[in-house]
Amino acid sequence: MQDTLPFLFKNNPFYPFISSHHKHHDFPSLSRPRNLHFPTFSSKTITITPLPPKPHPKIPEISSISPPPPPNSHSDFQEKMLYLDSIGLDFFSLIQHHPPIIIASLNDLKSTVDFLASMNFSTLELRRFLPMCPEILTAKLTSLLPIFTFLLREARVNCSDLKKVINRRPRLLTCNVETQLRPTLYFLQNIGISEVKKHTSLLSCSVEKKLIPRIEYFQKIGFSYRETVSMFRRFPQLFNYSVKENYEPKLNYFVVKMGRDLREIKEFPQYFSFSLENRIKPRHQCCVEKGVCFPLPVLLKTTEVEFHDRLEVCCNSSLPFKGSPLWCTKNCDI
Fold first, then answer.
1. pLDDT in tens, 199-215
2. Which one, 86, 127, 211, 297, has the greatest CB density within 10 A?
3. Where are the alpha helices (DSSP H) in 169-253?
4. DSSP character for 211?
5. pLDDT tens digit string along 151-166?
6. Greatest CA separation for the chain
7. Backbone phi and psi for residue 119, each to the nearest 5 degrees, phi listed first
């Protein structure tokens, strides 16, 4: 009605008059007061008795309702802490390294631990490798079981070695079979590493981010692809070392300080597995002082006693030249 009334007034020819607030001089006939008789209201004052207020609908008190506790309630938090503590795990250390444990349900944590126990992992073993890789605790059983199946059937790990494989590299239990483990297995087999079961720690490595860049590094410093692959086939652990922290400083010392040929690296890639400060440098300095040059395996693989005994023998006897048939027997070079 409020929308239609203005429309009616505006279209009415008397709208200007109506809008003048009914002035008396515009309507002479209404200027005289008239007595209007309304039987109900004219003779007495009406007293309006207010209606009693309607009672407000009663709202139930929230405190009277007991909703189920949320998953991260204080009680659930405390139960998880007590449970993990009961098997010797520090709850706060775990959540510091893997915060999703906070929102994981207690039932899920128990299921994971029970499953690992069913695979014959002792409590001591769990205490050792779960802090190393707390992501295992939030892994679903539907992802853990395929990993064990893969290791046994495709990687050909012996049942008796399965626990040893996991204890050595617990991160395997956080890897996806389809996107991580199987592609890495195929890559290693493709470059000629047939017994991957002896190098299962490599299965958790990314082919694109870790394995291929290390092969490319050795190609950049002068090795052919065939020579590089041969080195990794001979010593697969070479994939585990860092380019910046291992390859570069050791190669720099090998070429600049030791003045040796890179072909020796091709024949003995295990060179990178020895400590630069504690093994390579001290033994090279001893050889320099004595004027002796050992082949890399003799220089690095022998024990301290064997090394110094060989050094003493070479210094106290006439030394054959490298071209001599006796050179391999004496294992020293001048």
1. 999 999 999 999 999 99
2. 211
3. 182-190, 212-220, 225-234, 248-252
4. I
5. 999 999 999 999 999 9
6. 152
7. -90, 15
Query: 69-112, pLDDT tens digit by residue?
Result: 455 566 788 899 999 999 999 999 999 999 999 999 999 999 99
Tokens 């014959």: give the residue. Answer: 120
With beta carbons less than 8 A apart as the criterion, state whether 223 and 262 touch: yes
Residue 205, pLDDT score? 95
Name residue 68's amino acid: P
Q: What is the DSSP string of 24-79?
A: GGG-GGGSS------TTTSSSPPPPPPPPPPPPPPPPPGGG--PPPPTT-HHHHHH
Give the position of tokens 């996107």.
Answer: 179
Rounded to two decimals, the pTM is 0.69
Q: Which two tokens stand for residue 287?
A: 């050889």
**Residue 36 backbone phi and psi in degrees, to 5:** -100, 130
SS3 content of the chain, % helix, strand, coil (to 5): 65, 0, 35
The dihedrals phi and psi of 293, each to the nearest 5 degrees, come to -130, 105
The pair of structure tokens assigned to 77 is: 């938090």
* Residue environment code for 223-261, b if the CB has 16+ CB neighbours within 10 A, otherwise e: beeeebbbbbeebbebbeeeeeeebeebbeebeeebebe
